[in-house]
Design a protein that fits this description.
It is built from 11 helices and 9 strands. By secondary structure, it is α/β, with parallel strands linked by helices. The strands form 4 sheets. The chain has a 3-stranded parallel sheet with strand order 1-2-9, covered by helices on one side. Strands 3-4 form a two-stranded antiparallel ribbon. The chain has a two-stranded antiparallel sheet with strand order 5-8. α1 (11-22) packs parallel to α11 and α9 (185-196) crosses α10 (206-220). It is globular and about 65 Å long. Residues 268-296 have low confidence and may be disordered. The structure holds flavin-adenine dinucleotide (FAD). Residues 7-13, 30-33, 38-40, 55-59, 61, 252-253 line the site of flavin-adenine dinucleotide. Flavin-adenine dinucleotide binds at residues 7-13, 30-33, 38-40, 55-59, 61, 252-253.
Length: 296
């Protein structure tokens, strides 16, 4: 019996399964589909030999995520590709606002074509990201509630910076675009990215997400896995299996019969959750103790 059964082999589950295996757990992943990846998959849709992504396509957050970075997926076949322009928003007349991967001046130049001074407005907006982006990501990507990460963010902002940042955090992207830029270019960059995250231009908080995605585009680009999205999931699966984790494909997991909450150190027993087999100091359910310090 494995120490942990992970239901589903989407990217979140594969990250969790990899971290459990790294911590010494015996992990079994059950995936209902015949292939791993969930909404991070690709296939031959158009004609043989042409790979298309079936759902998601670009992964700035995967590149920025500490949980994924530590997996070193490049050692398991993942190759990231980046384009010179991470994203672009063309407008009538031939102009376009674009985020140029790792080139702030080039991004600023596209904003400047819409209004004098908007290039510097982009530099200032991205400068805010350079100051606090890593701490903001820490707060968003660490387990909830992210108290320590939020405290680090507040410390970086300083007493005079917290309130303006909180205000920016709830602004609709339409309003933020009007406040930050004189022309249409910068707002289009922010709004396009906010709408990608399923916000409306008037949604509370849409400015923060538009800024976050646009800033990641500036910093790391919009990376895509060479060979399609499935290569990201594939690398996670290969890493897991190379370290002894198992994945059963075409194997739907059913909810455990008894839904008692697990306690610290408790493992699944034979036949689903069995609170009677709990071992809160770290023994394997059904015998064979294990050092609790190895748990994540
Ligand atoms: C159209 C689309 C476009 C997107 N674009 C992007 C993008 O460009 N960039 C980006 O970063 N994100 C994008 N996303 C979001 C991203 O794909 C998801 O955030 C991510 O896939 C969520 O991963 P997950 O592991 O939580 O779930 P999922 O990817 O949904 O995976 C869940 C897995 O669990 C399996 N499963 C469910 N129930 C069971 C069961 N009982 N037994 C066994 N298996 C089960 C499913 O078959 C599936 O394989 C997009 C999503 C969609 C739908």
């Amino acid at each position: 019996m494995p120490d942990a059964i992970v239901i589903g082999a989407g990217p979140n589950a594969l990250v969790a399964a990899n971290h459990l295996v790294d911590a010494g757990w015996d992990v079994l992943v059950l995936e209902a589909n015949d292939e791993v990846g969930g909404a991070v998959r690709s296939g031959e849709l158009v004609e043989p030999g042409f790979t298309s992504d079936l759902f998601s396509a670009f992964y700035p957050l995967a590149v920025a995520s500490p949980a994924i970075r530590t997996l070193r997926l490049e050692e398991h076949g993942l190759r990231w590709c980046r384009s010179a322009l991470a994203c672009a928003h063309p407008t009538p007349g031939g102009a376009y606002a674009a985020v140029a991967t790792d080139d702030v001046d080039a991004t600023a130049a596209t904003c400047e074509t819409y209004a004098a001074g908007d290039g510097d407005a982009w530099r200032a907006l991205y400068g805010r990201w350079e100051e606090v982006g890593d701490r903001l990501l820490g707060a968003l990507l660490t387990p909830f509630p992210p108290l320590r990460a939020a405290a680090r963010l507040a410390a970086k902002l300083g007493p005079s910076g917290v309130l303006p940042f909180l205000r920016f955090g709830v602004l609709p992207v339409r309003r933020a675009g009007e406040e930050e830029f004189a022309g249409a270019g910068g707002p289009l960059i922010l709004a396009g990215n906010a709408l990608h995250a399923d916000f409306l231009p008037e949604s509370t908080g849409s400015a923060l997400f538009g800024w976050l995605l646009a800033s990641l585009a500036q910093q790391v680009g919009f990376p895509v896995p060479e060979g399609g999205a499935g290569q990201l999931s594939g690398a996670m699966a290969r890493r897991l299996e190379a370290r002894g984790g198992r994945i059963e494909r075409g194997a739907p997991g059913r909810p455990a019969r008894r839904a008692a909450p697990l306690r610290v150190g408790q493992r699944h027993g034979e036949g689903g959750l069995d609170p009677g087999r709990a071992d809160p100091v770290g023994g394997r359910a059904g015998g064979g103790g294990r050092d609790r310090a190895r748990r994540p």
